[in-house]
Amino acid sequence: DIVMTQSPLFLPVTPGEPASISCRSSQSLLHSNGYNYVDWYLQKPGQSPQLLIYLGSRRASGVPDRVSGSGSGTDFTLKINRVEAEDVGVYFCMQGLQSPRTFGEGTKVDI
Amino acid sequence: EVQLVESGGGLVQPGGSLRLSCATSGFTFTTSWMSWVRQAPGKGLEWVANIDQDGSGKNYVDSVKGRFTISRDNAETSLYLQMNSLRVEDTAVYYCVRDRLPSVYRGLDVWGQGTTVIVSS
């Protein structure tokens, strides 16, 4: 199975400042079609997870452009340009290249 | 509006069975793969299983193979998870999730509110 490793596991943030989360996979997530099969999800307190980014860098519907995903192969990053209060929660990366799909441990972001 | 509504969770003894259901609406169910994802109390997310659009292809995480069966009824636009030989470690919130299209990957883009399964004696 592909192992997804996130860092840091806890990230204190300041409103208005940038924030960044790293995700590393044990195997390349680059498909022959040129896309990296990595997603990012946010689980806000008391809510179901929601999709933020898919295929490494594509924003899901309704996700603000201050949130972005980058990276290729085995190293990926989620960046928030200017953190807002609504960004608190736990962020998960997930690989969608092969079954079983696997998630990272999660990064708790708090102000 | 796209909606996924899970039901069927509850308290069950180790070794028992439960069947989870997910009623869907607001999208073309017959063209979407579907997944179940679970979250143990205070833990992260674990993908459990998925099924392709016509039910001919199914995938499972190793820990549930031979015990859980994912299925769908396209006429009823519903997804199911039959869980047998339940273990204490299966205790979790189970989410019904919309998965990819056959030729388009879009992540797990719609999640239900979850249904809670507690396995305890």
Radius of gyration from the alpha-carbon trace of chain B, in angstroms = 14 Å
Helical percent range of chain B?
A: under 10%
Distance separating the two termini of chain B: 40 Å
Structural class of chain A: mainly beta
Main sheet of chain B?
A: 7 strands, mixed
What low-confidence regions of chain B span 5 or more consecutive residues with pLDDT below 50? Answer: none
Task: Describe the fold and architecture.
The complex is a heterodimer of chains A (111) and B (121). Chain A is mainly beta. Chain A is 0% helix and 47% strand. In chain A, the strands form two sheets. In chain A, strands 2, 4, 5, 6, 9, 10 and 11 form a seven-stranded mixed β-sheet that branches. Chain A has a four-stranded antiparallel β-sheet with strand order 1-3-8-7, with no helix packed on it. The termini of chain A are far apart. The model of chain A has no long low-confidence stretch (mean pLDDT 96). With 121 residues, chain B is mainly beta. Helix content of chain B is 0%, strand content 48%. Chain B has strands spanning 3-7, 10-12, 18-25, 34-39, 45-51, 58-60, 68-73, 78-83, 92-98, 110-111, 115-119. In chain B, the strands form two sheets. In chain B, strands 2, 4, 5, 6, 9, 10 and 11 form a seven-stranded mixed β-sheet that branches. In chain B, strands 1-3-8-7 form a four-stranded antiparallel β-sheet, with no helix packed on it. In chain B, a hairpin with a 6-residue loop joins strand 5 and strand 6. Chain B is globular. The N and C termini of chain B lie far apart (40 Å). The mean pLDDT of chain B is 96. Classes of the chains: A mainly beta (111), B mainly beta (121). The interface between A and B is medium-sized, with 27 and 22 residues.
